Amino acid sequence: MPLSHLDTKCNSFYIAGVNSLGIYLGNYNTPWELNRVDYKLQNVQTFKIKWMDSVKIFRGAKIEVDSPFVYLKDGIGAKFIINELSTLKNKDMEIVPYFSQLIAFNSKSLILRVVNKKKENVIIKLFPRSKTIKEGVSLLQKQGDGLFSTDGIFIKIPKKGKVIYVYYYRNQFFLADSNLNLLYRGRTIDTINNVQIKVKHLEYDNQLTISSPPLIVNKRACANERYLFVNSALYANNELTKYLDKVSIIDVYSIESGKYKFSFYLPDFGGIKMTEFKVFGKTLVALYGKYIYTYRLNF
């Protein structure tokens, strides 16, 4: 059962981050604002990010809180802005390659997922000041095309200097250090080893597109210092489909070894499924459209 819940009155919020002070919410409709609510979901504070007034950003740009910093990540606009969370006044902006995902360790070291000249996803480490780039060779393993088959979720492991990547369309993930050295490859408990996607080439603009709905294996994922939490899209053979249509399945894996530990369920609320979640310590924060729920994890 949830500890608390809050109606935000708006469907455009997203979870920007979690720390000891509470839950941070960004809003796609008001990107210059950052909201913080305590874990009891009672005290909501709104902060204005003053430097946003002078920065042009594209729709879809997101704020991310990673104490003691707050970032603005704009992949379409090829911008990355870092600021001290305590002030929200001064900005340090870097022009970076166009990216689809970005993880920051600090302003001097960024990890990005970009598309190369072959139109394949690759993971690179960028040193913005020197413009030096290091590619994570063979980290992403394609199956057929190198774009859709390698799509997934990029996660920074708190306080560990490591990143984990969970594929959307197969039962695989991997852990790497901040220098893009592979530490291990793991598998989720789902049985889909091979990506099930049909890709079509559009000759008129030389682009690739998915020609039929893909089979999603892993919908969402997040991590704390000890565990990887994966929102699985598939049901185990022994699970009751009728019941599981009303919950979200969370499978838990050890960060240290990649081994499966256990699973639990987050129930739907009012017919709404969980759309996003984060874990801080033993508190799980879940977003259900305009509603936020918090749970206490007993492990």
Strand order of the largest sheet: 1-26-25-24
Task: Tell me the Rg in angstroms.
Answer: 19 Å
Low-confidence stretches are none
- Helix/strand-derived category reads mainly beta
Instruction: Just name the CATH architecture.
Output: 6 Propeller
Shape: globular
Give your account of this protein's structure:
1% of the residues lie in helices and 50% in strands. With 299 residues, the protein is an all-beta fold. The chain has a single domain (4-218), classed as Neuraminidase (6 Propeller). The chain has a four-stranded antiparallel β-sheet, with no helix packed on it. A hairpin with a 4-residue loop joins β16 and β17 (182-187). The chain starts with a strand and ends with a strand. The mean pLDDT is 89.
What secondary-structure arrangement, pairings included, does this model have?
Layout: E1 4-7, E2 13-19, E3 22-27, E4 33-37, E5 44-48, E6 62-66, E7 69-74, E8 79-84, E9 92-95, E10 101-106, E11 109-115, E12 121-127, E13 132-135, E14 152-157, E15 162-167, E16 172-177, E17 182-187, E18 199-202, E19 207-210, E20 218-223, E21 227-232, H1 241-244, E22 247-254, E23 260-267, E24 276-280, E25 283-288, E26 291-296
Antiparallel strand pairs: 1-26, 2-3, 3-4, 4-5, 6-7, 7-8, 8-9, 10-11, 11-12, 12-13, 14-15, 15-16, 16-17, 18-19, 20-21, 21-22, 22-23, 24-25, 25-26
